[in-house]
Amino acid sequence: MTRHAVLGAGPVGRAIVGSLAQRQIDAIVITRSGTEVPGARAVKVDARDSDALATALAGADVVYQASQPEYHRWPQEFPALQASVVNAAKRSGSTLVAVDNLYGYAPNTEPLTEDLPQASTTRKGRTRADMWRALEAEWKAGNLRVTSGRASDFFGPFALGSQVGERFFGTLLAGKKAETFGNPNALHTYTYVVDFGEALVHLALDERSLGRAWHVPNASAVTNGEFLARTAAIAGVPARSVRRSAFQLRLAGLFIPPAREVIEMLYEFEHDFVIDHSAYAAVFGDHATPLDESLAATVAWWRQHV
Questions:
Q1: 51-55, 90-94, 210-214, 245-249 — which is least confidently predicted?
Q2: Euclidean distance between the first and final Cα of the chain, in Å?
Q3: Which of 6, 208, 252, 271 has its C-alpha lying 20 to 30 A from 186's C-alpha?
Q4: Is 187 a residue whose pLDDT tops 70?
Q5: Which of 232, 269, 229, 231 is nearest to 249 (CA)?
Q6: pTM of the model
Protein backbone atom coordinates (compact mmCIF):
# COMPACT_ATOMS: atom_id res chain seq x y z
CA MET A 1 0.00 0.00 0.00
CA THR A 2 1.24 3.49 -0.86
CA ARG A 3 2.07 5.56 2.19
CA HIS A 4 2.99 9.21 2.40
CA ALA A 5 4.60 10.98 5.36
CA VAL A 6 4.00 14.66 6.09
CA LEU A 7 6.47 16.54 8.27
CA GLY A 8 4.65 19.29 10.12
CA ALA A 9 1.03 19.95 11.08
CA GLY A 10 0.80 23.58 10.04
CA PRO A 11 -1.49 24.94 7.30
CA VAL A 12 0.50 23.41 4.44
CA GLY A 13 0.88 20.03 6.15
CA ARG A 14 -2.86 19.95 6.82
CA ALA A 15 -3.64 20.90 3.23
CA ILE A 16 -1.42 18.05 2.01
CA VAL A 17 -3.24 15.59 4.29
CA GLY A 18 -6.58 16.83 2.96
CA SER A 19 -5.47 16.23 -0.62
CA LEU A 20 -4.14 12.75 0.24
CA ALA A 21 -7.36 11.86 2.06
CA GLN A 22 -9.40 12.72 -1.04
CA ARG A 23 -7.31 10.14 -2.90
CA GLN A 24 -7.55 7.61 -0.05
CA ILE A 25 -3.77 7.58 0.28
CA ASP A 26 -2.50 6.35 3.66
CA ALA A 27 -0.74 9.20 5.46
CA ILE A 28 1.17 9.84 8.64
CA VAL A 29 1.92 13.25 10.13
CA ILE A 30 5.25 13.54 11.92
CA THR A 31 5.72 16.28 14.52
CA ARG A 32 7.70 16.79 17.71
CA SER A 33 4.48 16.94 19.74
CA GLY A 34 2.50 14.17 18.04
CA THR A 35 -0.15 16.58 16.78
CA GLU A 36 -3.32 14.91 15.54
CA VAL A 37 -4.50 15.87 12.05
CA PRO A 38 -7.80 14.43 10.76
CA GLY A 39 -7.16 12.00 7.91
CA ALA A 40 -3.72 10.87 9.05
CA ARG A 41 -2.01 8.94 11.83
CA ALA A 42 0.09 11.00 14.23
CA VAL A 43 3.74 10.05 14.82
CA LYS A 44 5.84 11.81 17.46
CA VAL A 45 9.39 12.33 16.17
CA ASP A 46 11.74 15.29 16.09
CA ALA A 47 12.71 15.75 12.44
CA ARG A 48 16.10 17.06 13.56
CA ASP A 49 16.90 13.51 14.75
CA SER A 50 17.81 11.92 11.44
CA ASP A 51 18.04 8.37 12.84
CA ALA A 52 14.63 8.52 14.48
CA LEU A 53 13.13 10.14 11.40
CA ALA A 54 14.55 7.48 9.09
CA THR A 55 12.90 4.82 11.26
CA ALA A 56 9.58 6.68 11.11
CA LEU A 57 9.86 6.97 7.32
CA ALA A 58 10.46 3.25 6.78
CA GLY A 59 8.02 2.08 4.12
CA ALA A 60 7.00 5.61 3.09
CA ASP A 61 6.98 6.23 -0.65
CA VAL A 62 6.92 10.00 -0.25
CA VAL A 63 7.90 12.48 2.45
CA TYR A 64 6.70 16.09 2.35
CA GLN A 65 9.01 18.50 4.13
CA ALA A 66 6.44 20.97 5.51
CA SER A 67 8.14 21.65 8.84
CA GLN A 68 10.20 24.71 9.62
CA PRO A 69 11.89 26.55 12.47
CA GLU A 70 10.49 29.78 13.87
CA TYR A 71 10.51 32.51 11.23
CA HIS A 72 13.23 34.54 12.90
CA ARG A 73 15.47 31.43 13.22
CA TRP A 74 15.56 30.38 9.56
CA PRO A 75 19.23 31.16 8.77
CA GLN A 76 20.42 29.50 11.98
CA GLU A 77 18.24 26.36 11.96
CA PHE A 78 16.55 25.68 8.62
CA PRO A 79 19.55 24.25 6.69
CA ALA A 80 20.32 21.75 9.46
CA LEU A 81 16.67 20.70 9.62
CA GLN A 82 16.60 20.09 5.88
CA ALA A 83 19.88 18.15 6.01
CA SER A 84 18.38 15.84 8.62
CA VAL A 85 15.29 15.28 6.47
CA VAL A 86 17.41 14.64 3.36
CA ASN A 87 19.53 12.06 5.18
CA ALA A 88 16.45 10.28 6.50
CA ALA A 89 14.76 10.30 3.07
CA LYS A 90 17.88 8.86 1.45
CA ARG A 91 18.04 6.07 4.01
CA SER A 92 14.35 5.22 3.67
CA GLY A 93 14.32 5.52 -0.11
CA SER A 94 11.43 8.02 0.03
CA THR A 95 10.84 10.67 -2.62
CA LEU A 96 11.22 14.10 -1.03
CA VAL A 97 8.74 16.87 -1.84
CA ALA A 98 10.06 20.16 -0.46
CA VAL A 99 7.68 22.92 0.54
CA ASP A 100 9.30 26.11 -0.71
CA ASN A 101 8.52 29.76 -1.32
CA LEU A 102 9.72 32.60 -3.56
CA TYR A 103 12.24 34.27 -1.27
CA GLY A 104 15.19 32.90 -3.24
CA TYR A 105 14.56 35.21 -6.20
CA ALA A 106 15.98 38.72 -6.30
CA PRO A 107 13.43 41.58 -6.45
CA ASN A 108 11.87 41.67 -9.90
CA THR A 109 8.81 43.57 -11.10
CA GLU A 110 8.32 41.21 -14.06
CA PRO A 111 6.39 37.93 -13.57
CA LEU A 112 8.57 35.39 -11.77
CA THR A 113 9.37 32.15 -13.58
CA GLU A 114 11.29 29.14 -12.32
CA ASP A 115 14.23 29.73 -14.66
CA LEU A 116 15.20 32.95 -12.87
CA PRO A 117 18.36 32.62 -10.77
CA GLN A 118 18.14 32.16 -7.03
CA ALA A 119 19.96 35.43 -6.46
CA SER A 120 18.30 36.90 -3.38
CA THR A 121 20.41 39.09 -1.10
CA THR A 122 18.09 38.96 1.93
CA ARG A 123 18.98 36.73 4.88
CA LYS A 124 15.98 34.45 4.51
CA GLY A 125 16.18 34.56 0.72
CA ARG A 126 19.79 33.36 0.72
CA THR A 127 18.82 30.61 3.14
CA ARG A 128 16.05 29.41 0.85
CA ALA A 129 18.27 29.63 -2.24
CA ASP A 130 21.08 27.66 -0.60
CA MET A 131 18.64 25.01 0.59
CA TRP A 132 17.29 24.52 -2.92
CA ARG A 133 20.82 24.30 -4.36
CA ALA A 134 21.61 21.60 -1.80
CA LEU A 135 18.56 19.59 -2.88
CA GLU A 136 19.40 20.06 -6.54
CA ALA A 137 22.94 18.81 -5.91
CA GLU A 138 21.61 15.65 -4.26
CA TRP A 139 19.37 15.03 -7.28
CA LYS A 140 22.14 15.60 -9.80
CA ALA A 141 24.43 13.26 -7.87
CA GLY A 142 21.76 10.56 -8.06
CA ASN A 143 21.40 10.43 -4.27
CA LEU A 144 17.82 11.62 -3.87
CA ARG A 145 14.51 11.71 -5.70
CA VAL A 146 13.35 15.25 -5.03
CA THR A 147 11.03 17.97 -6.27
CA SER A 148 9.87 21.28 -4.85
CA GLY A 149 6.71 23.37 -4.93
CA ARG A 150 7.02 27.14 -4.52
CA ALA A 151 4.14 29.27 -3.29
CA SER A 152 3.56 32.94 -2.66
CA ASP A 153 2.07 34.45 0.51
CA PHE A 154 -0.70 32.05 1.36
CA PHE A 155 -4.08 32.26 3.01
CA GLY A 156 -6.74 29.76 3.96
CA PRO A 157 -7.51 27.28 6.75
CA PHE A 158 -5.04 27.33 9.67
CA ALA A 159 -2.85 29.99 8.00
CA LEU A 160 -2.62 32.12 11.12
CA GLY A 161 0.96 33.35 10.79
CA SER A 162 0.84 34.39 7.14
CA GLN A 163 1.07 38.02 6.05
CA VAL A 164 -2.64 37.56 5.25
CA GLY A 165 -3.39 35.42 8.27
CA GLU A 166 -4.73 36.19 11.71
CA ARG A 167 -3.83 39.88 11.66
CA PHE A 168 -5.63 40.25 8.32
CA PHE A 169 -8.65 37.93 8.29
CA GLY A 170 -8.98 37.59 12.06
CA THR A 171 -8.97 41.30 12.81
CA LEU A 172 -11.10 42.22 9.77
CA LEU A 173 -13.84 39.76 10.73
CA ALA A 174 -13.70 41.02 14.31
CA GLY A 175 -14.67 44.47 13.03
CA LYS A 176 -11.18 45.90 13.39
CA LYS A 177 -8.65 47.19 10.87
CA ALA A 178 -6.82 44.52 8.92
CA GLU A 179 -3.02 44.70 9.02
CA THR A 180 -1.58 45.36 5.56
CA PHE A 181 1.83 46.08 4.05
CA GLY A 182 3.30 48.00 1.16
CA ASN A 183 1.60 49.66 -1.78
CA PRO A 184 -2.16 49.03 -2.04
CA ASN A 185 -1.92 49.55 -5.82
CA ALA A 186 0.83 46.99 -6.39
CA LEU A 187 -0.17 43.69 -7.98
CA HIS A 188 0.42 40.64 -5.82
CA THR A 189 -0.04 36.92 -6.32
CA TYR A 190 -1.61 35.20 -3.31
CA THR A 191 -1.62 31.40 -2.89
CA TYR A 192 -4.65 29.56 -1.51
CA VAL A 193 -3.15 27.00 0.86
CA VAL A 194 -5.61 24.31 -0.27
CA ASP A 195 -4.31 24.70 -3.83
CA PHE A 196 -0.77 24.52 -2.47
CA GLY A 197 -1.43 21.19 -0.78
CA GLU A 198 -3.09 19.82 -3.91
CA ALA A 199 -0.13 20.89 -6.05
CA LEU A 200 2.40 19.24 -3.77
CA VAL A 201 0.51 15.94 -4.01
CA HIS A 202 0.40 16.27 -7.81
CA LEU A 203 4.19 16.68 -7.76
CA ALA A 204 4.58 13.65 -5.50
CA LEU A 205 2.51 11.39 -7.72
CA ASP A 206 4.10 12.27 -11.07
CA GLU A 207 7.75 11.50 -11.80
CA ARG A 208 7.87 14.30 -14.36
CA SER A 209 8.15 16.66 -11.40
CA LEU A 210 11.50 15.31 -10.22
CA GLY A 211 14.73 17.27 -10.25
CA ARG A 212 13.31 20.76 -10.35
CA ALA A 213 11.15 23.33 -8.56
CA TRP A 214 7.67 24.38 -9.68
CA HIS A 215 5.48 27.41 -9.08
CA VAL A 216 2.19 26.09 -7.78
CA PRO A 217 -1.11 27.32 -9.28
CA ASN A 218 -2.57 30.61 -8.12
CA ALA A 219 -5.55 32.75 -9.03
CA SER A 220 -4.68 35.80 -11.12
CA ALA A 221 -2.79 38.51 -9.29
CA VAL A 222 -4.78 41.40 -7.84
CA THR A 223 -3.66 44.59 -6.16
CA ASN A 224 -3.14 44.45 -2.42
CA GLY A 225 -5.99 46.89 -2.06
CA GLU A 226 -8.31 44.74 -4.17
CA PHE A 227 -7.50 41.67 -2.08
CA LEU A 228 -8.65 43.61 0.99
CA ALA A 229 -11.73 45.01 -0.74
CA ARG A 230 -12.87 41.63 -2.09
CA THR A 231 -12.33 39.95 1.27
CA ALA A 232 -14.34 42.65 3.04
CA ALA A 233 -17.15 42.51 0.48
CA ILE A 234 -17.44 38.73 0.82
CA ALA A 235 -17.38 39.01 4.62
CA GLY A 236 -19.85 41.89 4.64
CA VAL A 237 -17.60 44.15 6.70
CA PRO A 238 -15.96 47.54 6.02
CA ALA A 239 -12.67 47.36 4.11
CA ARG A 240 -10.67 49.07 6.84
CA SER A 241 -6.95 48.56 7.27
CA VAL A 242 -3.82 49.87 8.91
CA ARG A 243 -0.65 49.80 6.84
CA ARG A 244 2.43 48.72 8.78
CA SER A 245 5.66 50.54 7.96
CA ALA A 246 9.20 49.26 8.33
CA PHE A 247 9.64 51.62 11.28
CA GLN A 248 6.61 50.15 13.09
CA LEU A 249 7.80 46.61 12.42
CA ARG A 250 11.25 47.47 13.72
CA LEU A 251 9.73 48.75 16.96
CA ALA A 252 7.49 45.70 17.28
CA GLY A 253 10.51 43.51 16.64
CA LEU A 254 12.03 44.63 19.91
CA PHE A 255 9.40 42.50 21.64
CA ILE A 256 8.22 40.13 18.87
CA PRO A 257 11.26 38.80 16.92
CA PRO A 258 9.28 37.56 13.86
CA ALA A 259 7.97 41.10 13.28
CA ARG A 260 11.38 42.52 12.42
CA GLU A 261 11.97 39.61 10.02
CA VAL A 262 9.14 40.88 7.82
CA ILE A 263 11.03 44.08 7.02
CA GLU A 264 13.48 42.63 4.49
CA MET A 265 10.57 41.04 2.58
CA LEU A 266 8.41 44.17 2.33
CA TYR A 267 9.59 44.70 -1.26
CA GLU A 268 7.19 41.91 -2.27
CA PHE A 269 4.28 44.19 -1.32
CA GLU A 270 5.75 47.54 -2.37
CA HIS A 271 6.08 46.63 -6.06
CA ASP A 272 4.30 44.24 -8.41
CA PHE A 273 4.93 40.66 -7.30
CA VAL A 274 3.36 38.39 -9.90
CA ILE A 275 3.99 34.65 -10.20
CA ASP A 276 3.92 32.73 -13.48
CA HIS A 277 2.82 29.10 -12.97
CA SER A 278 2.41 28.24 -16.64
CA ALA A 279 5.17 25.57 -16.50
CA TYR A 280 3.26 23.66 -13.81
CA ALA A 281 -0.07 24.10 -15.64
CA ALA A 282 1.37 22.74 -18.89
CA VAL A 283 2.38 19.47 -17.22
CA PHE A 284 -0.07 18.92 -14.36
CA GLY A 285 -3.02 21.15 -15.25
CA ASP A 286 -4.21 24.42 -13.78
CA HIS A 287 -6.35 23.74 -10.70
CA ALA A 288 -6.15 27.18 -9.09
CA THR A 289 -9.33 28.02 -7.19
CA PRO A 290 -10.99 31.28 -8.32
CA LEU A 291 -10.09 34.03 -5.86
CA ASP A 292 -13.62 34.87 -4.73
CA GLU A 293 -14.29 31.19 -4.08
CA SER A 294 -11.11 30.72 -2.02
CA LEU A 295 -11.75 33.96 -0.12
CA ALA A 296 -15.29 32.85 0.71
CA ALA A 297 -14.02 29.50 1.99
CA THR A 298 -11.37 31.26 4.07
CA VAL A 299 -13.86 33.71 5.57
CA ALA A 300 -16.12 30.78 6.46
CA TRP A 301 -13.21 28.96 8.11
CA TRP A 302 -12.25 31.98 10.18
CA ARG A 303 -15.83 32.47 11.33
CA GLN A 304 -15.89 28.88 12.57
CA HIS A 305 -12.56 29.18 14.37
CA VAL A 306 -12.52 32.63 15.98
A1: 245-249
A2: 38
A3: 252
A4: yes
A5: 269
A6: 0.96
- Residue 251 is predicted with a pLDDT of 80
pLDDT (tens digit, 9 = 90+) per residue, 17-29? Answer: 999 999 999 999 9
Of 114, 182, 120, 116, residue with least CA distance to 153 = 182
pLDDT score, position 257: 83
- List 166's β-bridge partners, or say none: none
pLDDT exceeding 90 applies to what percent of the chain? 92
CA distance 132 to 138: 10
Domains by residue range for the chain, with CATH: 3-151+193-217 (3.40.50.720)
pLDDT (0 to 100) of residue 102: 98
User: How many Å is the Cα radius of gyration of the chain?
Assistant: 19
Label each residue of the chain as H, E or C: CCEEEEECCCHHHHHHHHHHHHCCCEEEEEECCCCCCCCCEEEECCCCCHHHHHHHCCCCCEEEECCCCCHHHHHHHHHHHHHHHHHHHHHHCCEEEEEEECCCCCCCCCCECCCCCCCCCCHHHHHHHHHHHHHHHHHHCCCCCEEEEEECEEECCCCCCCCCCHHHHHHHHCCCCEEEECCCCCEECEEEHHHHHHHHHHHHHCHHHCCCEEECCCCCCEEHHHHHHHHHHHHCCCCCEEEECHHHHHHHCCCCHHHHHCHHHCHHHHCCECECCHHHHHHHCCCCCCHHHHHHHHHHHHHHHC
Q: Which amino acid is at 96?
A: L
